[in-house]
Specification:
The structure is a homodimer.
Chain A (H helix, E strand, L loop, with lengths): L1 E4 L4 H13 L5 E3 L10 H6 L7 E3 L5 E2 L2 H11 L10 H29 L19 H24 L10 H15 L9 H12 L6
Helix pairs in contact in A: 1-3, 1-6, 4-5, 4-6, 5-7
């Protein structure tokens, strides 16, 4: 088994934090995103989508998505449970992860991909033909982000962690989105005390540095 | 327990197909999207996000996401398994569902929300302040869609169903995306024989009419 990893980028970080929380270690190959190694022939022969992370299983199957990689390990190692235990917990974690992706992470990606001059022509992540940046989509991302933070603040006003009393995959997804927002130069989540408390607690866990 | 459902829209349809495949029935309330009932005070008091479907549990918790609702039932009723059995199946279904969402369904939504004149000012699903349509984003959706279909064709060239030998939640997600593409007036998936075979088989299941 081999994990294709990359420094700095948000999706590989999600997997690293997850593995650290589970106490698991996996053989890793680091792909150099600054040198566009993810779009080079060698990596595209492994993952034609040109995205990182990807997990190559011993039978040759490739899992090319961060959350799916974590689910794979969750089925092999149930404790500590990071995707929930009861049906309601499982559903709450899944629903909040999808909201984080669609409203929070998507907002950051909209800004990052469409407003970073170095990414001209690369409006989508991975291997695509030329995809023009859309300035209005960066604007839409800036509109979405504070609304997402309000939602996150409301969740965290009701529980210690994003999806309940226990730290879960939803915390990992939210932490990565909030930290990635800095790279997109979105305004920080000031004036939201529940987020401030939670962000300090999540960042203080050793996994956050993985 | 009560399911807030709606005719015609893709996300509620996912839940209906899932429930039909599982042989489950749930009390339903139908929200009239054509009358904007999802944005009226009565429904917003139940689901402030203004989206459908949503599942209200007996203890008052609301699950406001289609896939999370299905996962809730999956944990209560394991057979037939629609989210996979082995770790590799679970991961493959999850990865393909996320690709369907991010590359396929997102392409359709980009076109539908940004090119439908009746949706002017409503560029995002649910309760938002005015969100201008972005014509260039509809264009990007038209660029993404055939690439997604190529990917779906490749998956279906290798197995009977989207994520393996068994019908799964990934088939439900893909069927709903492909059928929703008609509403966005995207070109049909012609010249792709594996999709044609699969689409006929998935559409012939009684669940497709749920």
């Amino acid at each position: 088994m081999k994990l294709y990893d990359a420094a700095w980028a948000p999706s590989p970080r999600k997997v690293r934090i997850y593995l650290a929380e589970k106490g698991l270690s996996v053989d890793r190959v680091t792909i150099d995103l600054r040198a566009d190694e993810q779009l080079g022939a060698t990596y595209l022969a492994i993952n034609p989508g040109g995205t990182v992370p990807a997990l190559l299983l011993d039978d040759g199957e490739l899992i090319d998505d961060s959350v799916a990689i974590c689910l794979y390990f969750e089925r092999l190692h149930s404790e500590p449970a990071l995707f929930g235990r009861t049906p309601a917990e499982v559903a709450r974690i899944a629903a909040r992860m999808r909201a984080i992706d669609e409203q929070g992470y998507a907002a950051v990606v909209n800004v990052f991909r469409n407003a970073t001059p170095q990414l001209a022509g690369r409006g989508l992540t991975g291997k695509w033909p030329d995809v023009p940046q859309i300035a209005a989509l960066a604007e839409r991302g800036r509109l979405m982000w504070p609304r997402f933070l309000d939602r996150l603040e409301a969740w965290l006003g009701g529980s210690a962690w994003v999806a309940g009393d226990d730290y879960s995959m939803a915390d990992i997804a939210a932490l990565v989105a909030v930290d990635f927002a800095k790279a997109a130069r979105l305004p920080p989540a000031t004036g939201r005390p529940a987020i401030a408390r939670w962000h300090a607690a999540a960042s203080a866990r050793p996994s956050a540095a993985a």
